[in-house]
Amino acid sequence: MGKLWFGILLGGILGILDGLTAWFTPAVRSQIAGIVVGSMIKGAIAGAVAGWFAKKVNSVPLGILVGLVVGMLLAYGVAALQHGYYFEIMLPGSLVGAIAGYATQKHRPSRAIS
User: pLDDT value at position 88?
Assistant: First the structure.
């Protein structure tokens, strides 16, 4: 699996976990399904950018930084639409991006079998 697809898959999985953290905010529990789906999409986008960057640049610190910034910007956009919960949305979103950035830099794609 290439770095791009690895990033998308990992970002989506981490995004699901990110969305499930909304359970700890009682005011939004009734919207948990939409939050989980939105967080999965947000994580997949951050993972895709991190995976694309990892294909172009071989630097773990820069990969983490790119993932962190993309995750933070996507999370900020969601938080701004909600007019609140900035910390609760941006912290896990940033972590998803940073982890995806690290993992895509460290991931070694499998060789094609000929």
Answer: 83
DSSP string for 49-90? HHHHHHHH---HHHHHHHHHHHHHHHHHHHHHHHTS-HHHHH
Of residues 48 and 108, more confidence is placed in 48
Domain contains 10: yes
Q: How far apart are CA 26 and CA 41, in angstroms?
A: 23
Residues 68 and 41: their CA atoms lie apart, in Å, by 16
The pTM score is 0.86
Q: Is the pLDDT at 114 greater than 60, yes or no?
A: no
Domain span at 72? 3-106
Establish if 19 belongs to a structural domain. yes
Judge contact between 77 and 50, C-beta under 8 A. Answer: no
Q: Would residue 112 be called left, alpha or beta, if left means φ above 0 and alpha means ψ between -120 and 50 degrees?
A: beta
